[in-house]
Amino acid sequence: MSGAVIVNAGGVVTGRAGDGLLDADTVVISGDRIAAVGREAELGTVDADLVVDAAGAIVAPGLIDSHCHVVIGDYTPRQKTVDFLQSYVHGGITTCISASEVHAPGRPKDPVGVKALAIAAQRCFADYRPGGMTVHAGSVILEPGLEDRDFADLADAGVWLAKAGFGAFASPADCAPLVQAAQRHGMVVMCHTGGASIPSSSPVTADDLLAMSPDVSGHVNGGPTALSEADLARVIAESDMALQVVQAGNLRASLDVVRELERRGELTRLLIASDTPTGTGTMPLAVLKSVVELASLAPLSPFEAFAAATGNVAAVYRLDTGVIEPGRLADVMLIDAPLGSAQPDAVSAIAAGDLPAVSCVFTRGVLRFEISRNTPPPTRPLGVRAGAVPTPAG
Questions:
Q1: Are 8 and 141 part of one and the same domain?
Q2: E strand or H helix at 47, and its extent?
Q3: Which one, of 330, 354, 327, 358, lies nearest residue 341 by Cα?
Q4: Which CATH number goes with the domain that contains 196?
């Protein structure tokens, strides 16, 4: 068998909403998939390529950044920075979802141009893995003039993401027919929410969002300017759309969103993302920082916060990653209390407001690094060696 195993873990954060810390110390990886999760004593053994001794660190799914402004390649024109996506992997982000290639210099706005940009971005990242990361790129920006046949063409070309709220409409709500057309063709539609972020964008209010009914209210806490309290309350109460909060937004509004979703028993609607690179900059630890902030300041457990950045996102975007269970893509990281923390483990550190250490990251079953260059060092140094891998008996 060609694969790897993580042994001697201090538990598993599954990424599933409602789960606590799973009492498992072993995760088996076969090829690019998770093969088994359980206790080492209950698993048989076969030859394998790699054994990672977690030394008590905790296994967690790699983070999914559902609001990342990629363009073409591992370069951001907005911040003129190269290799930023590779650096994001060192922040525990193993998957990025394009929030549209809106920062492409000279971005086209005619139907042919917006289709071409989306298809080009989708093609560029189809097999390109910066730092091992998977990038779902090519989010068509909904502009006047697009018709149903255009969405059919885009879907046939492999484009399955769409972005509302940037088009040249007299009112953002006028985009509603295009949102519905994109959804009919199987696209997940995210909409800019709140105040304008760049000169080509417009404020989007609760009335606009409710008229459009996208799948995801992008940066509902502001990107960077939040909705009014009244509008925020309406979006939560009068829709069932996913509500994405971002590091580059308004923290107070994020806390309000979490409190209300928790009160309503609807935390599966919560998504945590970065909304970078934008004016805030490139932030490799953006998603992890939001997980920590919300788990330590809001009525949200570390497990629920992780689900909002992993399993919840995977459910909305129909991805086969984001959860630690057999059959899922092996996008996995080890996290620990940072060296010098007063807390005994990563989960306790997150609850206390400390950024955890990222000890290592696997993407698609491949070990990408043995210690993050962006987080503090772990309390428990892991061990990496060749050896025998536990795997389900029989």
A1: no
A2: strand 44-53
A3: 354
A4: 3.20.20.140
The per-residue b/e assignment along 44-79, b for 16 or more CB within 10 angstroms, e otherwise, is eeeebebbbbbbbbbbbbbbbbbbbbbbbebbbebb
Residue 79 host element (H or E)? none
Q: Are 163 and 189 in contact (CB under 8 A)?
A: yes
User: Residues 261, 330: one domain?
Assistant: no
**How far is Cα 230 from Cα 335, in angstroms, rounded to an integer?**
38
> Which residues, including other chains, have CB under 8 Å from residue 175's CB and lie 6 or more apart?
142, 164, 165, 167, 169, 212
Give the SS3 label for residue 232: helix
- Which secondary-structure segment (H or E) carries 360? strand 357-363
Residue ranges making up the domain that contains 307: 63-317
Q: What is the per-residue pLDDT across 252-275, written as a single tens digit (0 to 9) for each?
A: 999 999 999 999 999 999 999 999
At 43 the pLDDT is 84
Do 257 and 161 share a structural domain? yes
User: Quick one: 283 and 347 in the same domain?
Assistant: no
- Same-domain pairing of 123 and 206: yes
Contact 28, 5 (CB under 8 A): yes
CATH of the domain at 376: 2.30.40.10
Cα–chain-centroid distance for residue 32?
19
What is the Cα 111 distance to its own chain's centre? 29
Q: What is the DSSP letter of 339?
A: T
Q: What mean pLDDT do residues 247-251 have?
A: 96
The whole-number pLDDT of residue 389 equals: 47
Which has the closest alpha carbon to 386: 48, 105, 141?
Answer: 48
Of the three residues 317, 346, 374, the one that is the final residue of a domain is 317
> Domain boundary residue among 286, 317, 348?
317
* 273 in the same domain as 241: yes
Q: Which two tokens stand for residue 22?
A: 């799973």
For the segment 290-340, what is each residue's pLDDT rounded down to a tens digit? Answer: 999 999 999 999 999 999 999 999 999 999 999 999 999 999 999 999 999
Secondary structure of 283-325 as H, E, C letters: CCCHHHHHHHHHHHHCCCCHHHHHHHCCHHHHHHHCCCCCCCC
CB 121 within 8 A of CB 72: yes
The domain total for the chain is 2
